[in-house]
Specification:
alpha/beta, globular
């Protein structure tokens, strides 16, 4: 019997509605909450600085909220998913940091159930000192082949599938078959707005990993380091948004029995409840761009992508696409013209 898909949502440090509030209201749909520890490198900007909190204040708030979340039976997933740890990458310093954070979480929140990482060294450290913690390969590792899974099978218990290939449902089934034979589980990220096979991903991930250092540097102001935003300034590139890796709420059922958990990118989303509600209900009647992280509403304005106008066979068609034909196919361009509407359709009326 197939198990119903549940979600992993990102912790946000906020003055308003808390992640614990969202967990309370969608308890039956949420299995995990993922978070990075204040002051550590991550795949996102540091939340404490973004919200103006000191690291100490941020830690106190997080501890209280994470303790409340775990008390509801939700697993805690600690992220060490920075793309680069610089000169500390294989250091005693990083080992000590990982150990101290996990031990502290054990004392203050009941402990981390999962550690998601991009670092084989972090994996080695957690496995050496905390054998009961599930080790998960970050989506930023871009592991999407049997080769990659085989090579890393001693490192990880579960895998986030490389997002670029996750629409290829027949390939996902092959990965699931391997996972079943090897006692592993698969997860995927549903609402990434990033370009599929983005050539700037490594550059951007490194940029974010060194976010704290970069913020203190006198940087150039006449260049946008985010390729996607520059690309979407030109309307002829808009079909690329449909060629992405995201999966609509209406199409999640295709992954039942294949993946254990579906991650919703909500750590920096301006309206995480909107995202959780849409995916929990498997339906969304609004601007599809508003579900993504990053979202590109401003780049497409005054146009929006009306999610309810997608053709019924959208997933069936795109899940068997040959990527080598994308440059000449024209399907996504033709669909975009049908679902692109001009107006101010708000997406938060639910």
């Amino acid at each position: 019997m197939k198990k119903a898909i549940q979600f992993a949502i990102g912790y946000q440090l906020t003055e308003g509605e808390t992640t614990a509030d969202i967990v309370r209201d969608y308890r039956g749909h949420i299995a995990e909450v993922y978070f990075s520890w204040p002051g550590t490198a991550s795949a996102r900007a540091q939340s404490s600085r973004r919200r103006g909190y000191t690291d100490r204040k941020a830690r106190q708030i997080m501890e209280e909220e994470l303790r409340a979340i775990r008390a509801r039976g939700i697993k805690l997933d600690l992220l060490f998913n920075a793309n680069c740890y610089g000169d500390k990458a294989v250091s005693q310093n990083l080992e000590n940091q990982v150990r101290s954070i996990i031990e502290h979480l054990g004392e203050k929140t009941g402990g981390a159930d999962i550690v998601t990482t991009t670092s084989p060294f972090v994996t080695r450290t957690v496995k050496k000192f905390f054998q009961s913690i599930e080790m998960r390969a970050s989506v930023n590792m871009r592991l999407g082949t049997i080769f990659a899974f085989n090579y890393s099978r001693e490192l990880f218990d579960s895998y986030y599938i490389q997002r670029d290939i996750q629409r290829n449902i027949s390939h996902v089934k092959k990965l699931k078959s391997w996972a079943g034979r090897n006692g592993k589980t698969l997860c995927l990220l549903a609402n990434s707005g990033c370009l599929r096979y983005c050539p700037a991903q490594t550059f951007h991930d490194n940029l974010v990993a060194h976010d704290g250092e970069i913020a203190k540097t006198n940087n150039v102001s006449d260049w946008n380091p985010h390729l996607c935003w520059s690309l979407y300034h030109d309307r002829k590139n808009w079909p690329a948004i449909l060629q992405g890796s995201w999966v609509r709420p209406e199409d999640l059922h295709h992954y039942e029995g294949l993946v254990k958990v579906i991650k919703l990118a909500t750590r920096m989303h301006t309206h995480p409840r909107l995202v959780v509600h849409a995916y929990a209900n498997r339906q969304y009647d609004g601007n599809l761009l508003d579900l993504f992280e990053p979202g590109f509403g401003p780049a497409f304005a005054p146009y929006l992508i009306h999610n309810a106008r997608f053709p019924a066979n959208w997933f069936k068609k795109t899940s068997v696409c040959h990527e080598s034909d994308c440059d000449t196919c024209g399907y996504c361009r033709s669909i975009l013209e049908k679902i692109l509407v001009k107006g101010d359709r708000r997406s938060d009326n639910f």
